[in-house]
Design brief:
Layout lengths: L1 H15 L4 H16 L2 H4 L2 H7 L8 H14 L2 H13 L5 H17 L2 H18 L4 H12 L9 H9 L5 H7 L1 H22 L12 H24 L4 H19 L5 H35 L1 H12 L3 H18 L2 H18 L4 H15 L7 H10 L7 H20 L2 H9 L5
Helix pairs in contact: 1-2, 2-15, 4-15, 5-7, 5-14, 5-15, 6-7, 6-13, 7-8, 7-9, 7-12, 8-9, 8-20, 9-20, 9-21, 10-18, 11-22, 12-21, 13-14, 15-18, 16-18, 17-19, 18-19, 19-21
């Protein structure tokens, strides 16, 4: 029991003093194992840390990170903005809709909310400022829109979920995220339109609508990326890991040969930057694996799950409790870390109440998405606020409305599981 308290206590203490999440996970797991188990088991720390990342499906993560960066640097985002403007046209609230649409499409390439937020904010915030949108509003809007990347396939967080939860088909998870992702996008667009009209944001939007067919032709290479990934998975032409490799090859072909705005030096810089990001993610995964192994071996997760189940035998009440905890976790941690830390505890609870694990994974993703743009420590909002050069607290009045509407979208998926499960069931995947 002392080792269990040590596991949680060291982890929380290290987070409070500002230690990186990977360090907190690794040291907490190692300390608990050292106190609670014998020396032979302690010798397994290195083996279990390595085993956490020595998994073939995890190859998809650095490849999708690289894919997102290639498309960001190759000018795809700018062409998608032009295409979205051709669809929406110059109107009050138009640029806000464009920003959300581009975030949804970019999410189908990168699978990462922070990468999505950085790419779109860099392009859209200067244009939105010229059109009369406040910096704080623009930063909050793009941060919320980019959070849909955790739902839109190929989501890196859903890849992690499929690896940690036995029996869950990643293809089913990807398909299950499509409609909730679109629903989350609508939950951003609708209040944005209302606010823009009431506050007269975007009143300075003017100019001619970009030619539709010309902008479509230029955007087709970017639009084809999600089609290639999902189409290849659906047809069985390649696995999710192979899909990531195909996406990288396609992205480099677009940037180097079609758009011709990536030199060999640019390719080298993209490879180096994506390797740095991927290394951080994989270190977190490896040390979170140590944390999860320590908690499972010591019985900490079983005891915690039993304590939660003893609170109530009402599955709906327990689900609400879990959603609230995940919302607060999303405010201070990134999505991948939340999955790695909480799943060893939550999956036994989900199985006890016989919840559909594909549906539960999407609920977790939607909840974490809300946390990614909810202060005080919102990953996406930190990026967009920095680009917009505004303090995060100035975005709160706008972010609150988006939190409410995204929460409404989450509630709909809770009440109507078919929103998530209909598409994978129609495609014949096991859910």
């Amino acid at each position: 029991m002392a080792a269990n308290f040590l596991l949680l206590g060291v982890f929380v203490l290290l987070l409070l003093i500002g230690a990186p999440i990977a360090v907190a996970l690794g040291l907490a797991g190692a300390a608990a194992v050292a106190v609670g188990l014998d020396l032979n088991t302690v010798a397994m720390i290195g083996t279990n840390t390595y085993a956490s990342v020595a998994k073939y499906p995890l190859i998809a993560i650095p490849l999708f990170v690289l894919t997102g960066m290639v498309f960001e640097r190759s000018g795809v985002a700018g062409r998608l903005v032009t295409f979205a403007q051709a669809i929406v046209g110059p109107r009050r609230g138009g640029l806000a809709i464009v920003a959300t649409l581009v975030c949804l499409i970019m999410g189908g390439m990168s699978g990462s909310g922070p990468a999505d937020a950085a790419a779109v904010a860099t392009i859209m915030i200067p244009s939105m400022m010229k059109a009369g949108y406040p910096r704080s509003f623009s930063a909050g809007l793009i941060a919320a829109s980019a959070s849909t990347a955790i739902l839109i396939p190929p989501s890196i967080a859903l890849i992690i979920y499929s690896i940690l939860v036995p029996g869950v088909d990643l293809r089913a998870l990807f398909a299950a995220g499509v409609f909730p992702g679109v629903l989350a996008g609508l939950a951003v667009i609708i209040p944005t339109l209302i606010i823009s009209r009431v506050k007269n944001f975007g009143a300075a939007e003017h100019g001619e609508r970009p030619p539709f067919w010309k902008s479509l032709r230029e955007a087709v290479p970017g639009l084809m990326a999600p089609v290639i990934i999902l189409g290849g998975l659906r047809s069985g032409l390649f696995t999710p890991t192979e899909a990531a490799a195909v996406a990288v090859a396609y992205g480099l072909f677009v940037g180097v040969f079609l758009y011709r705005n990536m030199s060999l030096g640019d390719v080298w810089r993209v490879l180096a930057d994506s390797a740095e990001i991927s290394a951080v993610v994989m270190i977190i995964i490896s040390l979170a694996g140590l944390f999860a192994w320590a908690g499972s071996t010591l019985g900490a997760f079983d005891h915690a799950a039993a304590a939660i189940l003893s609170v109530s035998d009402d599955g709906s009440l327990v689900l609400i409790m879990i959603m609230v905890v995940l919302l607060f976790a999303g405010m201070i941690l990134d999505g991948v870390s939340i999955y790695l830390i909480t799943l060893p505890l939550l999956i036994p609870i989900a199985m006890a109440f016989e919840w559909n694990l594909t549906w539960f994974g999407i609920l977790m993703a939607m909840n974490i998405a809300i946390g990614q743009f909810t202060p005080p420590v919102a990953v996406n909002l930190m990026i967009t606020a920095r680009i917009a050069r505004v303090p995060i607290e100035e975005t709160i009045p706008w972010v609150l409305w988006l939190m409410l509407t995204m929460g409404g979208a989450l509630l709909l998926v809770i009440l109507f599981p078919g929103i998530a499960l209909w598409l994978p069931e129609m495609l014949g995947y096991r859910v």
